[in-house]
UniProtKB/TrEMBL annotation:
Residues 107-162 are annotated as: Disordered. Residues 145-162 have a biased composition (Basic residues). This is Putative ets-related transcription factor elf-5-like protein. Keywords: DNA-binding, Nucleus. Belongs to the ETS family. GO terms for biological process: cell differentiation. Its main location: nucleus. It is found in: Nucleus. It holds the Pfam family Ets. Residues 166-248 form the ETS domain. InterPro entries: Ets_dom, ETS_fam, SAM/pointed_sf, WH-like_DNA-bd_sf, WH_DNA-bd_sf. It comes from the Eukaryota. One of its GO terms (molecular function) is sequence-specific DNA binding.
Length: 263
């Protein structure tokens, strides 16, 4: 894939590219939806919008969209007499672009939207020619949607705004404050230290999966998502204790008057 133009990439090339990007960003290859992007060829991916990439992979789609068009633009200039730069070298991605991508990645990790299922892109296989590729700025913001005229067609239904689902650590905090789940599913292990323990870890994971509309959620995925909060010190591990975690110094709203509802 490194020697081809993007529009000539095969699904196998796309898998190799996604794995390469995962390694360069210090992300486990299995966390990027390489197999989902490999349902398309390079020409089809070039025709997709940033929103379509987000539908395929809500966590890393925007990052991969930017990277793909960086490569496409670089290859276009090479074919038109520009200085040949092999993708992957330091010169192929300037510092500003790299910093922006890493900022986006940190934001994705901190939000921890792990496990949210991708939507179907529903796009045709229309390709983008090289003149279109050359004019695609990798970091330019998407234009705002055009405002519709007053009123709406007769018989049309107003779309309901999606409900904000909240963050994983807040979900766990709220379970500990609800006697329906605490202490039967999750329990304060050492309230003074902000330490809690999963009593039925898989049931808690299923509750989170139901909230996120992800029936495949399990404790392994849940615990991996919890680790994203270590850096921001919202959650912290308790080493040597299985199924035990604690709220960090930046967590808020977890203190209660009646821990484990003993009274």
């Amino acid at each position: 894939w490194q020697t081809k133009t993007v529009k000539d990439w095969t699904p196998q090339d796309i898998v190799q590219w996604v794995n390469s990007e995962a390694r360069s960003l210090n992300v486990c290859c299995t966390e990027m939806a390489g197999e989902k992007f490999a349902l398309y060829d390079g020409a089809q991916l070039l025709s997709f919008t940033s929103t379509a990439f987000s539908d395929i992979d809500s966590r890393y789609g925007p990052v991969l969209y930017q990277k793909l068009h960086e490569i496409a633009s670089s290859r276009y200039h090479q074919l038109n007499g520009g200085r040949c730069i092999k993708y992957g070298s330091e010169e192929s991605l300037d510092e500003k672009v790299h910093n922006t991508i890493m900022t986006n990645l940190d934001s994705i990790r901190d939000e921890s939207n792990y496990g949210q299922p991708p939507m179907s892109p529903g796009l045709s296989g229309k390709t983008m020619d090289t003149s279109e590729i050359a004019t695609v700025p990798s970091l330019s913001p998407q234009p705002p949607p055009k405002k519709k005229g007053p009123g709406r067609p007769k018989g049309s239904k107003r779309k309901k705004k999606p409900e904000k689902l909240g963050r994983l650590w807040e979900f766990l905090r709220d379970l500990l404050k609800n006697r329906e789940y605490c202490p039967s599913l999750i329990v304060w292990d050492n309230y003074e230290e902000g330490m809690f323990r999963f009593v039925h870890s898989d049931k808690v994971a299923k509750l989170w999966g139901t909230k996120k509309d992800n029936p495949d959620m399990n404790y392994e995925k849940l615990s991996r998502a919890m680790r994203y909060y270590y850096k921001s010190k919202v959650l912290l591990p308790v080493y040597g204790r299985r199924l035990v975690y604690k709220f960090g110094p930046t967590a808020t709203g977890w203190k209660v008057d009646n821990p484990n509802f003993k009274d």
